[in-house]
Amino acid sequence: MTKHQKWFQSWFDTPYYHMLYKKRDRTEAKIFIKNLVDHLGINDQQTILDLACGKGRHSIFLNSLGFYVKGVDLSKQSISEALKSANNRLDFEVHDMRTPLNDKYDVILNLFTSFGYFDSMEDNFSVLNTIKNGLTKEGIGVIDFMNSPYVIQHLVAHDFVEIEGIQFDINRKYTNGVITKSIDVTDGDLTTHYEERVRAFQLDDFLRMFSMLNLKFVECLGSYGLEPYDVENSKRLILIFKNNA
After folding, report:
1. Alpha-carbon gap, residue 234 to 63, rounded angstroms
2. Over its length of 245 residues, how does the chain's per-residue pLDDT go in tens digits?
3. How many CB atoms within 10 Å of residue 120?
4. First to last CA, the chain
5. pTM over 0.90
6. CB 86 within 8 A of CB 108
7. What is residue 229's DSSP assignment?
8. Alpha-carbon span 139 to 132, nearest angstrom
């Protein structure tokens, strides 16, 4: 990470990030997307934005179900990879989620804890403003966030993982409302330090932010099976909301 880069600008653009997380459960992700589409009643005439789409795994699957999808992400490397799957109903673009969108969408998805990356609350509000101003009049927003109380309670302080000869030494801590994952990557003789930092927002924090931005809270779900949210036992905090303006 160079001196002036934020952690998400350097880490997400490295091959090591994708290597470390390549075993994410794609089956679970597909089940979640199908459940969500059915639950929200989305039809194939509606447009979907995948905000912070990474390499586009959710976007690509949504498109395979027949939807028009646009995926945006700050990582040029990720978007370059995602564009290999582009078609006339699937597009990708490099975009900072703190800045306004050029178009409006019927559904905006922010999935797999892609919120709360920023040290400044103003920046985190900017992401919500991006969603608010990017939704059509009857549009629906979805934020799929970690359930912070559960994560903090079950935080694993240290992991060591080796993948294809690359060593990942991982330390986690919770301090001052932020969950930090420190990752030392050893590739041959070179060790590079990376971080992930996510604000441990809870349901009340989101409800307060929604109220301040005049977003209408609809419901909260606690799993990819769309089970009811339980603060102590749910692994996810899935928020569904609308534009109240």
Report:
1. 29
2. 444 567 666 777 788 887 888 766 578 889 999 999 999 999 999 999 999 999 999 999 999 999 999 999 998 989 999 999 999 999 999 999 999 999 999 999 999 999 998 889 999 999 999 999 999 999 999 999 999 999 999 999 999 999 999 999 999 999 999 999 999 999 999 999 999 999 999 999 999 999 999 999 999 999 999 999 999 999 999 999 998 76
3. 9
4. 40
5. yes
6. no
7. P
8. 9
The two tokens of residue 130 are 């991006």
